[in-house]
């Protein structure tokens, strides 16, 4: 008799943490089914979550550690591989801790990342610990920290569906972050207005109430002109500016030259 089981789990593909049910037949994962009560994704998954299980049963998947000797890989036991790595790490960090560096994975849970930095700092005595998110998030972390005071998202993933107005610039959530795009659709169903500004008419632009197209690389002129219009028309929130912001007067100076004609010429 064929035995099919549904095993609740968390999609391992990205940091969103969607709940999924693996469909297991004769001890082998053969598909993914919705996990409807999961609060993050409420039964929906993106294409990566739907098909990302396929690597598990691929024939070329590594299932055992490999050690390279004389230019060739050979299979090894976990004990042998771990001993080799531990001995080499000790040898090099005893010689000079700065010769060792640790590079962590963005999909690792916080606990693993915590242990990684402990291993680097305490066991090997080095400050060389980094994270792959630096490659894709270097500019966003710096920008967010300057703008919002924190280099990370300042609100909960779920709170977007409570928004009244969503201003989305240069971000194609419906394709790039479909689960987030879904929250935007829920916000729209709750009555929010969605405005999308993007050089490309993306799937996110398609669901917008208002779409603004501009030439690639002209976002700053567009934003500056919008700020100038807001100030000229007295639409700004003075109390918020006084209590929560810095450098407002300097910014006001900067945007003075961006009238609508100039911005229109730059942004197309
Ligand atoms: S967004 Fe997609 S890849 Fe990320 S956890 Fe959810 S289903 Fe998996």
Describe the structure.
The chain is an alpha/beta fold. It folds into four domains: 4-57, Single Sheet (N-terminal domain of TfIIb), CATH 2.20.25; 62-94, no CATH class; 96-152, no CATH class; 157-267, 3-Layer(aba) Sandwich (Dimethylsulfoxide Reductase, domain 2), CATH 3.40.228.10. It has eleven helices and ten strands. The protein has helices at 47-51, 78-95, 110-123, 133-148, 173-176, 178-189, 203-206, 219-232, 238-244, 248-255, 260-267; strands spanning 4-10, 19-25, 28-34, 66-69, 72-75, 102-104, 129-131, 165-169, 193-197, 210-212. Strands 1-2-3 form a three-stranded antiparallel beta sheet. Strands 8-9-10 form a three-stranded parallel beta sheet. A hairpin with a 2-residue loop joins strand 4 (66-69) and strand 5 (72-75). Helix 8 (219-232) packs antiparallel against helix 11. The longest helix has 18 residues, at 78-95. It starts with a strand and ends with a helix. The mean pLDDT is 92. Bound molecules: iron/sulfur cluster. Iron/sulfur cluster binds at residues 11, 13-14, 16-18, 41, 45-46, 48-49, 179.
């Amino acid at each position: 008799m064929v035995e099919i089981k549904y095993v609740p789990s968390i999609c391992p593909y990205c940091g969103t943490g969607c709940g999924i049910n693996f469909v297991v037949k004769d001890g082998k994962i053969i598909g993914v089914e919705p996990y409807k009560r999961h609060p993050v994704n409420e039964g929906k998954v993106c294409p990566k979550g739907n098909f990302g299980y396929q690597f598990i049963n691929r024939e070329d998947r590594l299932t055992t550690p490999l050690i390279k000797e004389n230019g060739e890989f050979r299979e090894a036991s976990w004990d042998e591989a771990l001993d080799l790595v531990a001995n080499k790490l000790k040898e090099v960090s005893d010689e000079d801790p700065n010769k060792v560096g640790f590079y962590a994975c963005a999909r690792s849970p916080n606990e693993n990342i915590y242990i990684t930095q402990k291993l680097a700092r305490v066991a090997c005595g080095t400050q060389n610990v980094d994270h792959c998110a630096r490659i894709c998030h270097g500019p966003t972390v710096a920008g967010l920290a300057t703008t919002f005071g924190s280099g990370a998202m300042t609100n909960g993933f779920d709170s977007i569906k409570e928004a009244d107005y969503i201003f989305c610039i240069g971000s194609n959530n419906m394709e790039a972050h479909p689960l987030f795009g879904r929250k935007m659709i829920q916000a729209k169903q709750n009555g929010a207005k969605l405005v999308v500004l993007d050089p490309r008419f993306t799937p996110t632009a398609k669901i917008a109430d208002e779409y603004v197209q501009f030439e690639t690389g002209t976002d700053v002129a567009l934003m500056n002109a919008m700020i100038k219009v807001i100030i000229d028309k007295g639409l700004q929130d003075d109390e918020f500016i006084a209590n929560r912001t810095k450098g407002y007067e300097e910014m006001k100076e900067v945007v003075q030259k961006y009238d609508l004609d100039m911005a229109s010429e730059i942004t197309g």
